[in-house]
Amino acid sequence: MPSLAALFDTEALVPHGVCLLWRPELLWLHVVSDALTGLAYWSIPLVLTIIAVRRKDLVFPWAIELFAVFILACGATHFLGIWTLWYPDYGLQGAVKAATAAVSVVTAVALWPLLPRVLAIPSAATLAEANHRLTREVAERREAEQRARSSEARLAGFFEHLGDALFVVRATGHGFVFETVNPAFCRMFAVERGRIEGAGPEQLLSPEAAAELTGEFAACRETGSPRDWESTSAGPEGQRHWHTVLVPLPPEADGTARLLGSLRDVTELRRLQTDLVETARRATIGAMCAGVAHEMSQPVNIISLWADRSRASLEPGLARTRRAMEVILDQTRRLGTLLERMRDLARDAAPDAEPFDAGAAVSAAVEVAQRAWALDRIEVTLEPHPAAPVRGRPAQLEQAVLHLLENARDAVLQRRRRESSAPARITVSIAAGATPGSVTIAVRDTGGGVPAAIAPRMLEPFVTTKDPGQGTGLGLPLAVGIARGMGGRLSWANWAEGRPEAGAVFRLVLPLAGEQPAAAGQAA
């Protein structure tokens, strides 16, 4: 077996140029062909290297590297073909060819398994179609996102500008807190949003109301079903009614439970419903009173006439009998006054109603009360007020205010008899009503308040807190009728309970002249 040195021994060999008889045209044909082929081969790995360096996302980078080695080896064989034309280094040429053969076999063995995977690579047309579909899908998603943003903006506007108070509460480890509220909620409670969001119900409501609301929150969260209820609270304008709706929101990824709620002030609606029933009842009572007054007026007049004649015909010495006749006449006059007030219960608004300043009528009533009760040591004051144009008859409004003042005076005097050191004040105020387009005339006293026993029937006819024979119980009903005839209402509430200045406040709520009455024909 020849040795490796013998394989590369060139002493007994001649170059290929001898075989070509050193003919220049044949030599240069082989030289040029092999040189161009070798150069072309060696330029391909350069291109592949640039592609591999710049494209880090190639699927099979090792296949490109292996192919580059194979091309370099092929190019080397062509350059050695030029070399052996003049130098017989056939051993070196054979070794290079053997290396080229090995690289070729390895490359072929490695490439054939890649054939299915290479064929599975999408074509340019497929990629273009996929890119077109992807572009269309992106456009559709962008359009959907734009619609979602628009819808979210509309919902946000709906949340922000809805007249009902909306709020979202979040469950925490310590209870429930308001996560967000809309401006109507802030206006309803007269609190800034920054003070509400992040706070619990106990920081906004009374302890009883907060406990009730927290219980509803917990029930809605546990049952997962909507809650719908009504509640009441005491406010500056009297008792208010609230309608609350609570629905659970889908839980977030972190498991936080949230509830969406709406709060609506239905005081006017409930008041209207109550007033409709009350109006019908008062109409029935008024009709009955008018009928009774009509039937009784003639006998009372006859009794008064004959009593007066009898008194005039009595002998001068019959003083006791004359005194009896005078008592009869006094009581018949009182009964006549009562019958006249009973007729007033059934009277509607005067047809000659006209616009006038309520402040002037109220001032006149206060002046009358101040002069008449100067010896009672009761402080009657009228607070400064703006102009309040209403529609009706000034004399009737003055009469209604006088009824309220008389009622307040009687309450203050009764309390003074029980508590000699109790304050004796009656304060009258005129201010804008809670309902837009209305004015509230309030008469506030320090008489201790309306007893709970008669509170539900306080405005009914013939209901009075005075001792028997001291009142008819028609003053407040007459004020109610006057307010109703002017398109308003009369309401009342106890205030400052438990304090020395405790008493009752009666409010005449009237529509302003030129405004549509908010509760025409209502009675509180």
UniProtKB/TrEMBL annotation:
Regions annotated as coiled coil: 127-154
Record carries keyword Transmembrane helix: yes
Reaction(s) catalysed by this chain's protein: ATP + protein L-histidine = ADP + protein N-phospho-L-histidine
Catalytic class of the enzyme: transferase
Residue ranges of domain PAC in the record: 227-278
Keyword Phosphoprotein: yes
Enzyme Commission number: 2.7.13.3
Pfam families: ETR1_N, HATPase_c, HisKA, PAS_4
MF annotations from Gene Ontology: ATP binding
Gene3D superfamilies to which the protein is assigned, alphabetical: 1.10.287.130, Histidine kinase-like ATPase, C-terminal domain, PAS domain
Domain spans labelled Histidine kinase: 291-514
Bilayer-spanning residue ranges: 27-51, 63-86
Keyword tags: ATP-binding, Coiled coil, Membrane, Nucleotide-binding, Phosphoprotein, Transmembrane, Transmembrane helix
Listed InterPro entries: ETR1_N, HATPase_C_sf, HATPase_dom, His_kinase_dom, HisK_dim/P_dom, HisK_dim/P_sf, PAS, PAS-assoc_C
NCBIfam families assigned to the protein according to its UniProt record, in alphabetical order: sensory_box
Cross-referenced PANTHER family: HISTIDINE KINASE, SENSOR HISTIDINE KINASE
Protein name: histidine kinase
Organism: Paracraurococcus lichenis
